[in-house]
From TrEMBL:
GO terms for biological process: proteasomal protein catabolic process; ubiquitin-dependent protein catabolic process. The lineage of its organism: Archaea, Methanobacteriati, Methanobacteriota, Stenosarchaea group, Halobacteria. The formation of the proteasomal ATPase PAN-20S proteasome complex, via the docking of the C-termini of PAN into the intersubunit pockets in the alpha-rings, triggers opening of the gate for substrate entry. Interconversion between the open-gate and close-gate conformations leads to a dynamic regulation of the 20S proteasome proteolysis activity. Keywords: Cytoplasm, Hydrolase, Proteasome. Its main location: cytoplasm. HAMAP family: Proteasome_A_A. InterPro entries: Ntn_hydrolases_N, Proteasome_alpha, Proteasome_alpha-type, Proteasome_asu_arc, Proteasome_asu_N, Proteasome_sua/b. This is Proteasome subunit alpha. It is found in: Cytoplasm. The keyword Cytoplasm applies. Residues 243-267 have a biased composition (Acidic residues). The keyword Signal does not apply. SUPFAM superfamilies: N-terminal nucleophile aminohydrolases (Ntn hydrolases).
Length: 267
């Protein structure tokens, strides 16, 4: 019984390392991310593509209310997986950092700088008593000095830069697919296709235009733009990914919430 009590002390305390050097609460936060629906980022030669699975769990739910893709600044987009409320807090923080940089220095914030500001903020919640880690991972993509950049944030507060990545459910399988299919020098249109192909791997090879979101930031205009459903439908049809019928009410295990009672607890 005493050993079990000691184990629970390591388990519950965010500021306490276990004997083997682990922070269990951070690991549990990573598990919350895995329960969220998938998001994908692809870096192209002329821009960045963000795509997210945003299937509704009920036909009564408005698709526009499902928040998976966010504009952090004109030249920066963010995709999330994990707890929706945590994601919104970090998006608001990122937007404030971007605006402060414009006011203070008169220029757009760098993608790497913004990502590290976000991860510094996340990291503080891994060593402060009375708080918990953020149960969300982010893909931060944009244009910096004319070059596309793509980063990931982790619940531990660690930033990673990628050519292509996935977060959320089925991450390992989707990452394996990206490692096989990704090629350097992709155009922005090819990157959109690859991102949708990747999301389709965890959806039985089919996607609905209303159940997926796609955003691009191109080198030419450095403007965040979300693709309308008609354009997404056209790409899905061209790539043979268009779902035959609406499966919006299909509740798959990868879509499960950390809190089953909250329909919007995870994204």
């Amino acid at each position: 019984m005493q050993g079990q009590s000691q184990q629970q002390a390591y388990d519950r305390g965010i500021t306490i390392f276990s004997p083997d050097g682990r922070l269990y609460q951070v690991e549990y936060a990573r598990e919350a991310v895995k329960r969220g629906t998938a998001s994908v980022g692809v870096r192209a030669e002329d821009g960045v593509v963000l795509a997210a699975d945003k299937r509704a769990r009920s036909p009564l739910m408005e698709p526009e209310s499902i928040e998976k893709l966010h504009k952090a600044d004109d030249h920066v987009g963010v995709a999330s997986a994990g707890h929706v409320a945590d994601a919104r807090q970090l998006i608001d923080f990122a937007r404030r950092q971007a605006q402060v940089n414009r006011l203070r220095y008169g220029e757009a914030i760098g993608i790497e700088t913004l990502t590290k500001n976000i991860t510094d903020h996340i990291q503080q919640y891994t060593q402060v008593g009375g708080a918990r880690p953020f149960g969300v991972a982010l893909i931060v993509g944009g244009i910096e000095n004319g070059e596309p950049r793509l980063f990931e944030t982790d619940p531990s507060g660690t930033p990673y830069e990628w050519q292509a990545l996935s977060i959320g459910s089925d991450r390992s399988d989707l990452r394996d697919y990206l490692e096989t299919e990704y090629e350097e020098g992709l155009s922005i249109d090819e990157a959109v296709g690859l991102a949708l192909d990747t999301l389709a791997q965890s959806n039985d090879g089919e996607l609905s235009p209303d159940g997926v979101g796609v955003a691009t930031i191109t080198v030419d205009d450095e403007e965040y733009a979300e693709l309308p459903a008609d354009d997404i439908e056209e790409v899905l049809a061209d790539r043979d990914l268009l779902a035959g019928d609406d499966e919006a009410d299909d509740d798959e295990s990868g879509d499960a919430d950390a809190d089953a009672d909250e329909t919007d607890d995870e994204e």
